[in-house]
Design a protein that fits this description.
Blueprint (H helix, E strand, L loop, with lengths): L34 H14 L2 H4 L5 H6 L2 H15 L2 E12 L2 E10 L4 E7 L5 E8 L17 E8 L6 E8 L5 E7 L16 H11 L3 E5 L2 H4 L1 H6 L6 H17 L4 E11 L1 H4 L1 H7 L5 E5 L6 H15 L4 H19 L18 H7 L4 H4 L7 E6 L7 H10 L6 E6 L26 H15 L7
Parallel strand pairs: 7-8, 7-9, 9-10, 10-11, 11-12
Antiparallel strand pairs: 1-2, 2-3, 3-4, 5-6, 6-8
Helix pairs in contact: 5-16, 8-10, 11-12
């Protein structure tokens, strides 16, 4: 995973929710000229170990969350995952909702990292993130998608301050079509769920539309409204991050002329799969649900297992791996505490994610809560997935063993993105172009069409 939960770079720790760039600054909204040198100076101080000096420009909130000793721990966590700092490569800036974001891309021993420094109107550092520097995406549509069989149109999901840009991929032809809403995994993802050159949600949209099924995908709230979400980081739960917008997407589809309102389905990938029980509890009108690589265990357990795996395959030196593992084990232990306080510092918890997020996650056991969703379910799992594994698949199977409206499929050669591969899966393969396997597209399409027909299940 990129940085918060089930994304690709599980070894990388951040101070709070990651952000990604959404647009370049235009001349009319140019970033203050002193901020780029200021961000570069900040990074240089981190690299020299001058943590007190680096923290001098923090605003009040960041200063409380990241005093020099915790800033040092955060930087050391980055070094433990990415290797030794080699130098700055380039810097650029964007503006988002009144905040200036300077991205300083740095070379490390194992991988380039983007140090994202957010400045408020006073020129103080109001946010700080570390994220893998993504290579330029070079996407080509999969062979199973026929561009002449569907059209795409821009839509808006939700309304008001949290409105999200989206895309409806619509089969050509008359009549009303069954439709699928795509719900993202963790992190500030775009509507295609872009990871390097891979765009699994675009694969799904084009593949399913080619087979007569409409698909609605949209920018995740932490992508489209990253600055505002960052300002609320201490109170955000999966409801605000994911669930509310999935429900808004369902509502958007119900009013569309070409969509069969009685044949709307929701597909959740990764984190999106974890929250399918929550979506199902609030969306009685949805015909059925698809879980792709959704964890059925406590989230902190998945993170620890993922970290152990990645450290074993990414070439980390044994002493560095042991140190990083010791840290994440302590953070996971803190997240598991029965009396975990909402005031627990995010730096003491896995992935630097605030305590309220963890407290909310523990309220719902996905494998048990899914039993209350009395509608057809399709649960898919890749056999090479090291982020969500066959352990989770088995838990879904056990929880739903008495249901005859549930289909579970395991694909031995597929990874977390449902792309094909051989041997042990490693994080580096997410940087190579791939597509959701054709068999997955066909299985999802066949299941949706079958369940779109006949009387609507109750519950």
């Amino acid at each position: 995973m990129r940085t918060t939960g089930i994304r690709v770079f599980g070894w990388l720790l951040v101070t709070c929710f990651s952000i990604s760039l959404s647009k370049a600054a235009t001349p009319s909204e140019a970033v203050r000229p002193d901020l780029i040198p200021g961000a570069e100076k900040f990074v240089d101080r981190l690299a020299r170990g001058e943590y007190a000096a680096a923290a001098q420009r923090f605003d009040e909130a960041v200063a409380r969350a990241l005093p020099p000793d915790k800033l040092e721990k955060t930087w050391q966590s980055v070094l433990a995952g990415a290797g030794a700092f080699k130098g700055r490569l380039r810097s650029n800036a964007v503006r988002d909702q009144g905040l200036d974001i300077v991205v300083v891309t740095c070379a490390f021993e194992k991988a380039p990292i983007d140090v994202k420094v957010v400045f408020n109107k006073k020129g103080e550092i109001a946010g700080l993130w570390f994220a893998p520097s993504e290579p330029p995406a070079t996407y080509q549509s999969p062979a199973y998608a026929a561009a002449d069989s569907f059209s795409e149109q821009n839509v808006v999901v939700g309304e008001g301050e949290w409105a999200l840009p989206g895309t409806l991929t619509l089969p050509k032809g008359g009549g009303r079509f069954p439709a699928v809403v795509l719900v993202h995994g963790s992190g500030p993802l775009d509507r295609d769920e872009t990871i390097g050159p891979n765009k699994p949600f675009r694969d799904l949209a084009e593949g399913l539309a080619t087979r007569g099924i409409a698909v609605l995908r949209y920018e995740k709230r932490t992508k489209a409204h990253q600055a505002r979400m960052a300002a609320l980081k201490d109170t955000i739960t999966v409801k605000e991050e994911t669930v509310d917008d999935a429900l808004a997407a369902v509502d958007r589809l119900k009013g569309m002329e070409k969509i069969d309102p009685q044949a709307i389905f929701v597909l959740g990938h990764s984190l999106g799969g974890i929250v399918i029980p929550r979506i199902g509890a609030r969306a009685a009108e949805v015909r059925g649900f698809i879980i792709m690589a959704g964890a059925a265990r406590p989230f902190e357990d998945v993170i620890l297992e993922q970290m152990e795996y990645v450290l074993s395959v990414n070439g980390t030196k044994p002493d560095e791996a042991a140190k990083a593992l010791e840290k994440i084990k302590a953070q996971v232990a803190k997240a598991r505490e029965p009396n975990l306080s909402a005031d627990t510092p995010a730096s003491d918890l896995p992935l630097g994610t605030p305590a309220r997020y963890w407290l909310d996650l523990r309220k719902v056991d996905p494998a048990q809560a899914i039993r209350a969703v009395k509608r057809p379910l399709l649960i898919l799992q890749g056999g090479r997935d090291y982020q969500v594994t066959e352990k989770d698949f088995s838990l879904w199977k056990q929880a739903l063993s008495d249901r005859n409206d549930v289909v579970l499929k395991l694909y031995p050669d597929l990874n977390h993105l449902f792309a094909e591969g051989k041997g042990k899966a490693v994080p580096a393969e997410y940087s190579r172009p791939g597509h959701v396997a054709k068999v997955v597209i066909e299985d999802v399409a066949a299941w949706v069409k079958k369940n779109a027909e006949g009387p609507r299940p109750g519950g």
